[in-house]
Amino acid sequence: NAGTNSGGGGGGASHGYPGGSGRGGAGGSGCVILKMLTADAGTTTGSPGSTTSGDYTIKTYLSSGTYTTPS
Predict the structure, then answer these.
(1) Which pTM value belongs to this model?
(2) 41: how many CB neighbours lie within 10 A of its CB?
(3) Are 50 and 67 spatial neighbours (Cβ–Cβ below 8 Å)?
(4) How is 37-65 classified by DSSP, letter by letter?
(5) CA–CA distance, 34 with 64 (Å, rounded to integer)
(6) What is the C-alpha separation between 9 and 58, in angstroms, rounded?
Protein backbone atom coordinates (compact mmCIF):
# COMPACT_ATOMS: atom_id res chain seq x y z
CA ASN A 1 0.00 0.00 0.00
CA ALA A 2 1.16 3.49 -0.81
CA GLY A 3 1.81 5.80 2.11
CA THR A 4 0.28 9.24 2.39
CA ASN A 5 2.24 12.40 1.71
CA SER A 6 2.60 14.54 4.78
CA GLY A 7 4.35 17.84 5.15
CA GLY A 8 3.83 21.44 6.08
CA GLY A 9 2.32 23.96 3.72
CA GLY A 10 4.21 27.01 2.51
CA GLY A 11 4.22 30.30 4.36
CA GLY A 12 1.82 33.06 3.35
CA ALA A 13 2.85 35.90 1.06
CA SER A 14 3.57 39.36 2.49
CA HIS A 15 1.79 41.47 -0.12
CA GLY A 16 1.90 45.13 0.84
CA TYR A 17 3.88 44.57 4.05
CA PRO A 18 6.76 47.07 4.33
CA GLY A 19 10.00 45.30 3.54
CA GLY A 20 8.17 42.14 2.49
CA SER A 21 9.19 40.22 -0.60
CA GLY A 22 5.62 39.47 -1.65
CA ARG A 23 6.46 35.77 -1.88
CA GLY A 24 5.29 32.86 0.22
CA GLY A 25 7.68 30.36 1.74
CA ALA A 26 8.38 26.93 0.32
CA GLY A 27 6.23 24.06 1.54
CA GLY A 28 7.32 20.66 2.75
CA SER A 29 6.68 17.40 0.94
CA GLY A 30 3.04 16.65 0.27
CA CYS A 31 0.64 17.05 -2.60
CA VAL A 32 -1.11 19.89 -4.40
CA ILE A 33 -4.41 19.46 -6.23
CA LEU A 34 -5.67 22.12 -8.64
CA LYS A 35 -9.09 22.18 -10.33
CA MET A 36 -9.89 24.60 -13.14
CA LEU A 37 -12.16 24.92 -16.13
CA THR A 38 -10.52 23.03 -18.99
CA ALA A 39 -11.03 26.04 -21.27
CA ASP A 40 -8.97 28.16 -18.83
CA ALA A 41 -6.18 25.64 -18.11
CA GLY A 42 -2.67 27.09 -18.09
CA THR A 43 0.73 25.48 -18.62
CA THR A 44 2.58 23.09 -16.32
CA THR A 45 6.09 21.87 -15.64
CA GLY A 46 7.00 18.72 -13.82
CA SER A 47 4.82 15.65 -14.14
CA PRO A 48 1.42 16.37 -12.60
CA GLY A 49 -1.33 13.82 -12.95
CA SER A 50 -4.12 15.17 -15.11
CA THR A 51 -7.77 14.14 -15.22
CA THR A 52 -10.70 15.68 -17.09
CA SER A 53 -14.14 15.56 -15.51
CA GLY A 54 -16.90 17.28 -17.46
CA ASP A 55 -15.82 20.88 -18.06
CA TYR A 56 -12.99 20.68 -15.51
CA THR A 57 -9.33 19.60 -15.50
CA ILE A 58 -7.79 18.38 -12.24
CA LYS A 59 -3.99 18.53 -11.86
CA THR A 60 -2.32 16.56 -9.05
CA TYR A 61 1.30 17.27 -8.11
CA LEU A 62 3.18 14.75 -5.96
CA SER A 63 6.63 16.21 -6.72
CA SER A 64 8.13 19.49 -7.90
CA GLY A 65 6.46 21.44 -10.67
CA THR A 66 4.78 24.71 -11.57
CA TYR A 67 1.44 25.84 -12.89
CA THR A 68 1.16 29.11 -14.82
CA THR A 69 -2.22 30.71 -15.39
CA PRO A 70 -3.04 31.84 -18.93
CA SER A 71 -2.61 35.55 -19.60
Answers:
(1) 0.56
(2) 17
(3) no
(4) EGGG--EE-S--EEEEETTEEEEEESSS-
(5) 14
(6) 20
